[in-house]
Design a protein that fits this description.
4-stranded antiparallel β-sheet, Aminopeptidase, Alpha-Beta Plaits, elongated, about 400 residues, 9-stranded mixed β-sheet, alpha+beta, 11 helices, 2 domains
Length: about 400
């Protein structure tokens, strides 16, 4: 009878005493690396400079790194291993435009700056784990692949993670390092479908052409209809009209108006239902505006384009990866909290690979704002947890 995963995790933790000591010694260096990488601009779609920096840092720890077709930076532990690899991911991109001032400041114990946690922390810790694993040369049954991914944020639609998974063998396990923390384990993927709605018409003068269908009116009706949607008897879900715009002048009937919509659920069937609702509401709003137009005027048209699709799903609570993560959390003195979120783990779960997302130690807050902060107090505990999870999964020959 194979040993229990929790027992393997506890044994692995004990056998990593030397490596955990190294992590404690490297704590200050991890923070310096975190600050350095956070100050390299990497808006979604423009991650190249940060990616090249990561490739150089992987080389510094003895791992050859390459850039794939999506701009991901991929490095693998040296040696011959059996079976599919354990994959460690951290996303390169941030929500901040290229022009953002990325200076990092000290505020007492805290370090403050855009992207310092999300995902400066994840990238810095991934580099440190690669260094310690390579230095330790601990006997592992499986190779470990480190992937710094592109396109995780916003309309990036998990581009890098999807590309990597579509062009690689199915991983044995995927551990995503995203932000700070040492207790949450994201094993449920919050799926989303995102849409850009565009209404177009002939436009004209607000007085002389009055009666011509107005795309802004249609878009506004659609937004109001979407705001009133209530899905009952299905998984928890949400529809958000997140952006809206159009028009050229206060005294002109617009030729175009647009809105962007974010639909979320933990269930793909519910996401499909939400998509049908969105398309039906937009079609009805456009038809109502056309019905009100002056006879003989040109009708408006509309399009609904899906611009994002993040799969939902879950790695079961009793799966070896989740059991190992929960036990590793307890071993560093924290109580595990299973959670739901949207991360690169969605892409892995979507192709059937066991995946979780975890914080990379310390505490953080105000993510996606220029006030984003990181507190490094006891941050090594989260890094120890990550190392224990990775090493445990790399020692398991079968699930």
């Amino acid at each position: 009878m194979p040993p229990r995963v929790a027992d393997v995790t506890a044994e692995t933790y004990r056998e990593l005493t030397r490596e955990r000591r190294w992590l404690a010694d490297l704590d200050g260096e991890v923070l310096r690396t975190q600050v350095e990488v956070a100050q390299i601009a990497a808006p979604t779609g423009s991650e190249g400079r940060r990616g090249r920096w990561m490739a150089r840092r992987f080389a510094d720890v003895g791992l050859a790194a390459s850039l794939d077709g999506a701009g991901n930076v991929v490095a693998r532990t040296r040696g011959a291993y059996a079976g599919d690899p354990v994959v460690v991911c951290a996303h390169l991109d941030t929500v901040f435009p290229e022009s953002t001032n990325l200076a990092v400041q000290r505020d007492g114990e805290r370090v403050v700056g855009p992207g310092i946690c999300d995902n400066g922390r994840g990238l810095a810790v991934m580099l440190t784990l690669a260094r310690v694993i390579e230095r330790g040369n601990t006997g592992l049954a499986r190779g470990i692949e480190f992937v710094a991914t592109t396109g995780e944020e916003g309309v990036g639609d998990l581009r890098g993670a999807k590309y990597y998974l579509a062009n690689s063998a199915r991983p044995f396990a995927v551990i995503v390092l995203d932000g700070a923390g040492d207790d949450r384990i994201v094993n449920t993927a919050l799926g989303s479908r995102r849409f850009r709605v565009v209404c177009r018409g002939p436009g004209g003068h607000s007085w002389a052409a009055f009666g011509t269908p107005n795309p802004v009116h249609a878009a506004a009706r659609a937004a109001a209809g979407l705001a009133s949607v209530r899905i009952r008897g299905a998984s928890r879900s949400a529809i958000t009209v997140s952006r809206i715009g159009g028009g050229m002048s206060i005294n002109a009937i617009p030729e175009e108006a647009w809105l962007e919509v974010d639909a979320r659920s933990t269930d793909d069937q519910t996401l499909a239902l939400l998509e049908r609702e969105i398309r039906a509401i937009v079609t009805a709003a456009a038809a109502e505006e056309n019905d009100r137009r002056t006879p003989g005027t040109q009708p408006l048209s509309h399009t609904v384009e899906r611009i994002g699709d993040r799969p939902s799903g879950a790695t079961p609570d009793d799966a070896p990866l989740v059991v190992a993560a929960s036990e590793a959390t307890r071993l560093v003195g924290r109580e595990p909290e299973l959670a739901t979120a949207s991360t690169d783990a969605n892409a892995a779960i979507g192709v059937g690979a066991p995946a979780i997302a975890i914080g990379a130690g310390g505490k953080g807050g105000d993510a996606h704002t220029k006030r984003e902060w990181f507190d490094p107090t006891n941050a090594t505990l989260g890094v120890e947890r990550a190392l224990t999870i990775i090493a445990t999964m790399a020692r398991l020959v079968t699930e």
